[in-house]
Amino acid sequence: MNLKRIVARSRPATPTMNRNKQTGIALVAILLIVALGTVMAASMVVEQQASIQATRGFLDRGQALQYALGGEELARQVLYEDFSEDEDTDHLLEAWASDDLHYEFEDGEVNLKITDLQSLINLNLLSQKNPGNAPSRQRLLNLINAMGLDPAIVDRIQDWIDEDSGARVTGAEDFEYLAFDPPYRTGNTLMADSSEIALLGMEPEWFQQLMPYLTALPDEMTVLNVNTAQAAVLQSLAPGLSYEAAEAITQRRDEEGGYQSLQAFRQVPELAGLPGLQDGGLGVQSEFFEIRIIARYQDRFSYLTSILHRNSLDGSMRILYRDFSKTFRVSPVPVTEEQSG
Hints:
By secondary structure, the chain is of the alpha/beta class. Helix content is 41%, strand content 15%. A hairpin with a 2-residue loop joins strand 1 and strand 2.
């Protein structure tokens, strides 16, 4: 009896049993393959969608950039038409100076702001290469005094621009800036941007006050356009000119469409008999303009700031500088009665 049981237990499995076992293993393998395939397919779909979104965003940003460059070309056309209509004067009632330069395109828009850079005090006029830099230096000094700032800034600016290593009475050269942390040297050349005055060791508040009225043009022989200058800049023409008088000049000027000549500007009542007035380096025409552009394509934005030079002889134009960062011109700080007095 025991022998029969041992023999029965030692019998090999039948073919039917083997098939059932193999079928179960195959089914499990198939399920694993299907699961892996599903996971891989879902991952590929997610990656594909992310790739499509990234490509779409890249194309939209590229389109917004093209709209910004198109805005630059629109500004060039506006400035050329202005030159064609009146090549002798530039003033704030002309089309280029409008605050509503807005253009709509398919799925987007472009906003322009054109600023006459010769309405500001060009720091590079203080260069030794400009034989007539005395009036420009005095105007910058008048502006600084009217704001109640330290007049030593003027000497520091001239030392920064000139090519020698000798410091003026209240100026500074390498020996002072090398003591800063981090240390640096003076520029010893024309300023590339008016923001370089932040390197002169001045107070941040002074920087904020001065920046709206300054520029750094690559030509050290430009003129200040009295047709577009703000009241604070006109006040700098003479130490005896009050801010209120300068405001009256700008208000009447803008109502009448500017002055046709420098001689007409000299005849305004507020300047009559004013001591210390120098008209060297003044004019009624401009060549350098700043174009600030905000372009939108769908939900993408692009920003562009361009500096443009317009030839005063034939109206031809060239772009001197482009900046695609999101920057904005510092707004003027209101001049108080104490400052302007």
